[in-house]
Backbone:
C-alpha cells in the first residue's frame, strides 16, 4: 500500500487530487500509536519495491494470502535500546545539571557519539533513535537528514583527513575549496554526520588520522544547535558482541589515549554498545511466521494427499533424481 | 498464486457516518488487516473540524461495507433492479458497525488526515474479519506509479428506488515524491481520465492506492 487520497484542490482536471503517503507517517513520533491501532508495522526503508521487480503489491515478495509482513527488519527496528538512550541522555545532561534548567539558547559543544556494534545490530537505527529521542531535546533543532562520510583507510596517511574535511565543507557550502571548519559554525548548526569504520581494516595510522579529523571537527566550536558526529564502529562480519570484541575495545582505548587535542572541545559519548536482540524483540515476527506455516501446511498436506494418496510407496531417491533433473533444465 | 486487481477491490470499503436527523456523511476506506479499516479522518469528523483544528469528537454511529462482502451476497451489481437486489441480498446490505480507535476522543487533530476503524470481531464478515494485512511501501525519492480504488461520486450506482450500490472505481497515475507538500500530502497526477468538470473532483471520495 502506498497511501490514501486525502485532499481535493481545484487546479486542473488531472491535478486536483492530493495524497497522504503512509511512508511519511513512519518517523513521526506522534503517530507511533497510529501503527499500533492499525495493527501494522511501519514500513522500513528496505520495504521499497523498485522498478519492474515489484511483486505482489499487497504482500511483498512472498505470495501467501496470510503473510502480514515478511520483512524482519520491520520488527528488528523495535529492538529495546532504551538503556543506551538513557545512558546517552545522562551524559549529555547529567542529573546534577538537569535541575539547573539551563537556557536552551546557551551554546553547547558538538557531541561525538561512538556506536559500537555489528552491522546486523542496525547501528543506523540507533543513530535514528538518538536523533529522535535525545538530540532534539538536548542539542537543539536538527536538520532532517544525516549525511554520510566515508572513511578512507588507504589514504589516512596522506590526505584522508582532508577528504573528510572537504566533504563537510562541500555539504555546508557547496564549494570544493577546503576551509577551516571554525568559520562554518553557523552553517553547521543542526547538522548530523555518520562515519562508519571497520576496525579490522585499521592500524595505528588510522587512529592518528581519526584523532586529527576529530580535532578538525572540534573546530566547529559551541553553538545553540551544535553539529553532531555519529561514528559507527564494527569489526568485519564477526559474531562477537561489540562490547566483548577486543579489537573494538582496543580501538576505543587507543583513541582515548590520544584524545587530548580535542576532548575539551567536544562532548564524547563512547559507550554506546549494541547488544543482541532477544526473542522478545522479534516475537511478533516469529508468531506471524508460525501462523503462516500453520495455515499453509494444511492446504499443502491436502494437495499431497490428493496427489500421492493412492500411489504406491515411492523411493525418495527417485524424488531427488526428478528434482535434480528439473533443476538442470 | 498471483492476485488480480479484483482481489484488491474486494477489500475497498464504504464508510457511512450517521450525523443524526437522517443526515449521512459517507466516504471510502480500505481493510488493511483483520477488523481494521484505514480511512481519512475528514470522512469521520468532517472537513470543518479538520480545518479549524478542534479536538476529535467521535461520531455517533459508523458503519462499513466492503465491496467483497456485498458481491458475495449479491452477484447482481450489473442489475440495478431494486426487487432483484433486495431478494438476492435478503434485505441485508452487509453493513457492519465500526468504532473509531485512532485518533481517540479528545485527541488533537493529527497532522495527517488518517483514521483507523475497528469492526468488532463478532460482527465482522469475511472480507473484514479475515482480511490480509497490507504491506506498506517504504519511503522513496522517486515518483511512484500506482492505482487507487475507491467509490467515486461520479461512478455512483443507485437502484430505481435510490438505494446506493457499491461500485468501486479505479484511477491510475503517479505520486510525485519530491514536490512541495500541501498540508502533509503530495500531488497525484491521474493518467486514466478524470471527470469532465474539474469541480467533480470535489465529489471524489477517499481512495486507497497500491503499487
Residues:
Amino acid at each position: 500500500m502506498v497511501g490514501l487520497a486525502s485532499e481535493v484542490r481545484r487546479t486542473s482536471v488531472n491535478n486536483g487530487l492530493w495524497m497522504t503517503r503512509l511512508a511519511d507517517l513512519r518517523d513521526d513520533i506522534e503517530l507511533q500509536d497510529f501503527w499500533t491501532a492499525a495493527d501494522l508495522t511501519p514500513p522500513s526503508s528496505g520495504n521499497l519495491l523498485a522498478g519492474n521487480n515489484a511483486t505482489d503489491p499487497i504482500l511483498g515478495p512472498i505470495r501467501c494470502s496470510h503473510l502480514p509482513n515478511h520483512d524482519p527488519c520491520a520488527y528488528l527496528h523495535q529492538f529495546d535500546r532504551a538503556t543506551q538512550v538513557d545512558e546517552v541522555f545522562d551524559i549529555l545532561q547529567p542529573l546534577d545539571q538537569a535541575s539547573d534548567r539551563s537556557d536552551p539558547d546557551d551554546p553547547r559543544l558538538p557531541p561525538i557519539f561512538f556506536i559500537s556494534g555489528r552491522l546486523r545490530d542496525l547501528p543506523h537505527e540507533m543513530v535514528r533513535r538518538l536523533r529522535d529521542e535525545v538530540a532534539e531535546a538536548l542539542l537543539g533543532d536538527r536538520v532532517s537528514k544525516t549525511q554520510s562520510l566515508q572513511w578512507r583507510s588507504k589514504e589516512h596517511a596522506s590526505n584522508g583527513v582532508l577528504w573528510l574535511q572537504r566533504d563537510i565543507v562541500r555539504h555546508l557550502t557547496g564549494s570544493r575549496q577546503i576551509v577551516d571548519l571554525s568559520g562554518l559554525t553557523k552553517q553547521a548548526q543542526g547538522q548530523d554526520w555518520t562515519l562508519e569504520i571497520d576496525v579490522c581494516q585499521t592500524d595505528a595510522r588510522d587512529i592518528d588520522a581519526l584523532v586529527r579529523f576529530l580535532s578538525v571537527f572540534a573546530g566547529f566550536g559551541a553553538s545553540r544547535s551544535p553539529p553532531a558526529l555519529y561514528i559507527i564502529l564494527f569489526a568485519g562480519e564477526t559474531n562477537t558482541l561489540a562490547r566483548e570484541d577486543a579489537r573494538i575495545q582496543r580501538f576505543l582505548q587507543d583513541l582515548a589515549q590520544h584524545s587530548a587535542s580535542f576532548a575539551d572541545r567536544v562532548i564524547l559519548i563512547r559507550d554506546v554498545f549494541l547488544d543482541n536482540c532477544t526473542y522478545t524483540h522479534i516475537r511478533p515476527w516469529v508468531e506471524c511466521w508460525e501462523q503462516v506455516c500453520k495455515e499453509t501446511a494444511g492446504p499443502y498436506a491436502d494437495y499431497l494427499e490428493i496427489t500421492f494418496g493412492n500411489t504406491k510407496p515411492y523411493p525418495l531417491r527417485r524424488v531427488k533424481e526428478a528434482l535434480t533433473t528439473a533443476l538442470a533444465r | 498464486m498471483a492476485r488480480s486487481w479484483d482481489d484488491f477491490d474486494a477489500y475497498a470499503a464504504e464508510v457511512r457516518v450517521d450525523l443524526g436527523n437522517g443526515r449521512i456523511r459517507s466516504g471510502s476506506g480500505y481493510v488493511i488487516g483483520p477488523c481494521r479499516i484505514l480511512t481519512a479522518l475528514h470522512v469521520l469528523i468532517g472537513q470543518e473540524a479538520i480545518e479549524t483544528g478542534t479536538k476529535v469528537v467521535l461520531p455517533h454511529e459508523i458503519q462499513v461495507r466492503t465491496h467483497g462482502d456485498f458481491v458475495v451476497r449479491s452477484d447482481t451489481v450489473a442489475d440495478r433492479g431494486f426487487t432483484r437486489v433486495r431478494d438476492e441480498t435478503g434485505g441485508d446490505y452487509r453493513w457492519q458497525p465500526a468504532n473509531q480507535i485512532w485518533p481517540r476522543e479528545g485527541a488533537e487533530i493529527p497532522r495527517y488526515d488518517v483514521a483507523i476503524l475497528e469492526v468488532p470481531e463478532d460482527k465482522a464478515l469475511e472480507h473484514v474479519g479475515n482480511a490480509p494485512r497490507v504491506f506498506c511501501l517504504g519511503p522513496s525519492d522517486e515518483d511512484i506509479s500506482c492505482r487507487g480504488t475507491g467509490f467515486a461520486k461520479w461512478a455512483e450506482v443507485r437502484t430505481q428506488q435510490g438505494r446506493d450500490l457499491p461500485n468501486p472505481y479505479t484511477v491510475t497515475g503517479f505520486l510525485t515524491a519530491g514536490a512541495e507538500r500541501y498540508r502533509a500530502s503530495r500531488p497525484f497526477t491521474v493518467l486514466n481520465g478524470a471527470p469532465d468538470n474539474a469541480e467533480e473532483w470535489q465529489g471524489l471520495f477517499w481512495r486507497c492506492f497500491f503499487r
Notes: Residues 279-308 of chain A form the longest helix (30 residues). Confidence is low (pLDDT under 50) at residues 46-68 of chain A.
